[in-house]
Amino acid sequence: MKKAGISHLSLLCLILISLLFVSCQSQVPEQAQAIKGFKAFDAKAKEILSQMTLDEKIGQMTQPEQDKVLGNAGDMQKYFIGSVLSGGDSDPTKDNSLIEWTNLYDRVQEEALKTRLMIPALYGIDAVHGHSNVLGAVMFPHNIALGCTRDPELVERIGRITAKEMRATGIHWTFAPAVTVPQDIRWGRTYEGFSEDPEIVKVLGKAMVMGLQGTDLSDPLSVVACAKHYAGDGGTEATKAPRPGFPGGDIVRMWLDQGDTKVDEATLRRIHLPGYITAIEAGVGTIMPSYSTWNGERCSGSKRLLTEILKEELGFDGFLISDYNAIRQINPMNIKESIMISINAGMDMAMEPGGYREFFDTLKTLVEEGSVPVARIDDAVTRILRVKLAMGLMDESKTHKADRALHNEFGSPEHRAVAREAVRKSVVLLKNDNKMLPLSKTGARIHVAGKNADNIGNQCGGWTIRWQGQTGDVTPGGTTVLSAVKQAVSKETEVTYSLDGTGAEGAAFGIAVVGEEPYAEGVGDKEDLSLDAQDIATINNLKNAGIPVVVIVISGRPMIVNDILPQADAIVAAFLPGTEGQGITDVLFGDFNPTGKLSFSWPRSNAELPMNINMPKEKYNPLFPIGFGLSYN
Ligand code: GLC
Fold first, then answer.
1. Using CA of residue 62, residue 66, residue 71, residue 73, what is the dihedral sign?
2. Is residue 536 part of a domain?
3. What's the confidence (pLDDT) of residue 443?
């Protein structure tokens, strides 16, 4: 059959279409090009691997806590350590200042580079709402508040700033974002989740990874992210029993943290996997398996989860980092078996804060006796080296010292402005009778009260300077709600304060700032989410002064407010806003019209918990549904 000749016109059209396609491709936003995976570094990784002894390979898979390994002179070299972490409270010896963290990072790299192959260390830390271990860092709102913004562009900017403040200390790996989907707000880690809705988690989790990692991991202002805790950490069932191995373990109490998630695989995929799928799309370098169990099996030892689903089906090509001593929970009576199960299931690096020597020696024995195949070791080390290569860590031209020039921007007004914007956009207006809000800036007197009114530590919550956070002046540079009110109002307006709400008579209105004090992880597991007696008394004292009262709830989760609902003319949920309290007064005084929408369902009572949108619709009857939020117009 005669081949149809291509006319000059058709050829021209073809060329134009091709050029158009190419130009569109090149216009693909830079971010979209981040999704390239780590296998691109395999050739170089395997070249390095071929030079490594078994000891050097196992050293890359071993992650001690910095203070423990540095406390044993020579151990960084003896065990060929390839990574360290600062877990909660694993701080510089002198203090948590920017300079001390920076000196610590430089020292760790100095020690790591004394090994034969001079492979730099990966230094991991929980920078989960800003570089939150460092004094003076900008502490952003925790994820529960960011979930109320529904703003991925903002979350990406927050990730970028967090990465920059981290790199000011040199530290280049954060164990964030948590892409957990908490289903029961009695869990102490609820606030680490963006939402109970996986559709919100998958969008904001991806945005945070993109912000932290940028479009090129070798960018000196990027850090490696870690999606956690895989999988179903937020779906555990409440247990009322002694909690073995934990403080007060013999006391019968309700707990959820590190418990059992009893769901079929379809439900696990629907609720708990979406955040990992989008994190992998964003090119996340590391993923942390959960302490919890899935239908009775420790996630840290599940080949179905770690290898079959995550690595083979979803194509994750970075590396898995265990949680803190989590491998040992597989079989607490037999550490050797636990290590064998976990590594063979697909774990690549072991977070062994103090037991790193035992881990190293045991894994070496397991390989030598054939219980752990060398091929599994080589896969794990290849994955770790891929990420180090992608970060440019193996570039000999680099000094591997922190870039101290970045100290000038650490905690800067520009960074704080973004955090204040995040607070503004995360505040949720739940009640506003008689349009009490926005407040006037020119009233004669405003009376502020409550335990969370003048308390940066309570505003920041857990994972702030200390693992558990700390009430009071935990970090400099922030603004409490009380300070923010004083800065917001006119010079003629008097602002008075009392912890318990007394002395408010004659004020134009009262502001009660109540809620929770800091906690982290299982310490925050709580059966009764009612406001405490102190807060209720504070609100009543204000109300008894005969003035309108706005209640601001600063907490790691929705709380039961039924006891104060009638007394509160207005209620604002601020969750854990971090250091920039002015974001709250921007809304209170009308400089910003509230746009926040609840990222978790707000229950009526303790009795109806757990309450979330994934439960049967006929049972879903919250006080305020997920997505609720009033505005001023
Ligand atoms: C903790 C947490 C995990 C954290 C790790 C290191 O126990 O479960 O989220 O990243 O240990 O601090």
1. positive
2. yes
3. 86
